[in-house]
Specification:
alpha+beta, Aminopeptidase, 7-stranded mixed β-sheet, 4 helices, 7 strands, globular, binds coenzyme A
Length: about 150
């Protein structure tokens, strides 16, 4: 697992170039540089950065939980040189903590059907595949919808 000291922060303007550059990795799915730029400005979306720009995760929309019982992992990314060291798993743990703290019942995610590394990451973290959605992404690629029930401490 990752040996560097842990630290989290909400993304600030200094992180935007890292996040937008990283978003090019999602290009096969559609115009994600524009989409992620929009999410960065969206007050319903939280973006967290892990370590010295080792990775980021976008969560939301944080509509009140009486209105919507789940939040989405909208994007998750780990810098190539930091992959396979547990950073992605830690970010999903943070997502679960945020969901629990805000009173949601589920975490949800959509993952490209061909994206085996991401599918394994989510499944290892306890997410289950609920369904396949054809044509989910703007590019026309299909996705699996995954979900994890949030355990309450009560
Ligand atoms: C998917 C991604 C976030 C994983 O981050 P990571 O920090 O490498 O993940 P972790 O080290 O926490 O891995 C946890 C588990 O996921 C699975 N996994 C991660 N990368 C994998 C790979 N390349 N091949 C197979 N399994 C993989 C493994 O089960 C791994 O556990 P293990 O190392 O004990 O075998 C990272 O590869 C990434 O940023 N990819 C590009 C962006 C992307 O596709 N995001 C998802 C969009 S939905």
């Amino acid at each position: 697992m990752e040996s560097q000291p842990e630290f989290w922060r909400k993304a600030g303007r200094d992180d935007y170039s890292f996040i937008l550059k990283a978003s090019k990795e999602f290009q096969a799915f559609g115009p994600y540089t524009e989409i992620i730029a929009g999410w960065l400005k969206d007050p319903w979306v939280e973006t967290w950065v892990y370590g010295e720009k080792a990775g980021f995760i976008m969560l939301g929309p944080f509509f009140p939980p009486y209105f919507r019982s789940y939040i989405d992992v909208m994007a998750i990314y780990v810098s190539p040189e930091r992959r396979r060291k547990g950073v992605g798993s830690k970010m999903l743990h943070l997502a679960e903590e945020r969901a629990r703290k805000k009173g949601y019942q589920f975490l949800r995610a959509h993952v490209g059907c061909e994206n085996l590394s991401a599918l394994r990451l989510f499944q290892k973290a306890g997410f289950e595949i609920k369904k396949k959605i054809e044509n989910y992404y703007p590019s026309g690629l299909s996705a699996f919808e995954l979900q994890k029930k949030i355990k309450t401490s009560r």
